Amino acid sequence: MESYLLDWANLLLRWVHVITAIAWVGSSFYFVFLDSSLTVPADDKLRAEGATGELWAVHGGGFYHPVKYAVAPPRLPEKLHWFFWESYSTWMSGFALFTVTYLWNAGTYLVDKSLMDWSPATAVAVALAFLVVFWLLYDAICRVFTGRRNGEAVVGLLVLALVCVAAWLACHWFAGRAAFLLVGAMIATSMSASVFFVIIPGQKKVVQAIAAGQPVDPIHGQRGKQRSVHNTYFTLPVLFAMLSNHYGFLYGHPRNWLVLIVMMFAGAAIRQFFVLRHGWKLGRNRHPAGYALAGVAVIVATLAWLAPQATGTARLAAGQADYASVQKVLEQRCYLCHGQQVQMKNVRLDSPQALKQHAQAVYQQAVVAKTMPLNNATHITEDERGLIGRWFVAGARVD
């Protein structure tokens, strides 16, 4: 019953998380587009009021005319919409999903004893520390170096180095699948923390100053803008890290930390293309196609790097393996999760017909990607993987 209820919790939390993430990412992308597409207001009255940009747009049969005040509007409207629940609800649903899936079963999903032989409680504590420590270091970098000479460049390089170190540590301390997700959750936590600790408090101070008739300190807008820009570049790397746990050939690679870093870099480069494209359309910068090409080139190079080696298949075909031999391996290594008592992911392997049905998946997960058994909890050997491979290459016969 516990497994059944956890599956339902996983499904519902995943559903909520995707919905709220769409809302947050969508609003983030929209405001980056809006900022990059604003032009100087044509109306003298708007400029006199302090408006710094405007945009005319058409959508859904209507015309829209958003206007931006870089510091403060001449007066506060009666109704002011705050963009923060998209961020908070995304983080809360994501953390709940992370808890149900990984922290609740830390011994299975977080711990890989071939990397770190620590207790589930220790693994949970270190995983949570990743979320907190990364945010503290990221926030400190932004506060210390922003405003200095070449400050933004220094901040960018230091944050990049921080992400690389975190990715290396996560992949050397945790099971690969959990490590990728943890790095994504770590960055996403900082994104939401920026909203909670920097952007929204700064906006509230601006509103309070306007309401009190006091001058507005522009630093709050500058800090909020900086964190919002960082968040938009974090978005595609985070999405990749979150989705990658479905693909064992990524997190199961011996240099999985490098795979994660280069693919997140590709995502950030592609995002840069879309950010600068808005300015290019207004003649503000050169065409940013180079960023998109760089990102695609990194993805293609990674695809070629991770491609299965044909020589491995040829080597497998050199030997012979019958069903009886494979059955002994599966009984010892796989039936615990895919047998009569438990069928994880609705996969059962303890009969000839069931094994024949899932032969391709068994070969892919146990031999090619080597992601099953999960974290090699049942200690399958390379010789046993080779035995399964030879059986599959020979035709996966079960008679």
Sequence-ordered SSE layout with sheet pairings:
Blueprint lengths: L1 H36 L6 H5 L2 E4 L2 E3 L2 E3 L2 E3 L15 H19 L2 H4 L10 H26 L5 H23 L2 H36 L7 H25 L4 H4 L4 H26 L7 H18 L3 H8 L5 H11 L1 H4 L13 H6 L1 H10 L13 H12 L6
Antiparallel strand pairs: 1-4, 2-3
Helix pairs in contact: 1-3, 1-8, 1-10, 3-7, 5-6, 5-7, 6-7, 6-10, 7-8, 8-10, 10-11, 13-17, 16-17
Question: How would you describe this structure in keywords?
Answer:
transmembrane, single chain, 2 domains, mainly alpha, 399 residues, 3% strand, two-stranded antiparallel ribbon, membrane, Urate_ox_N
Shape: elongated
Uncertain residue ranges: 311-317
How many separate domains make up the residues? 2
Q: Give the class from helix and strand content and strand pairing.
A: mainly alpha
Describe the structure in your own words.
This is Urate hydroxylase PuuD. Keywords: Membrane, Transmembrane, Transmembrane helix. This protein is elongated. It has 2 domains: 87-306, no CATH class; 312-393, no CATH class. Mean pLDDT is 90; it is low at 311-317. It has 399 residues and is mainly alpha-helical. Strands 1-4 form a two-stranded antiparallel ribbon. The chain is built from 17 helices and 4 strands.
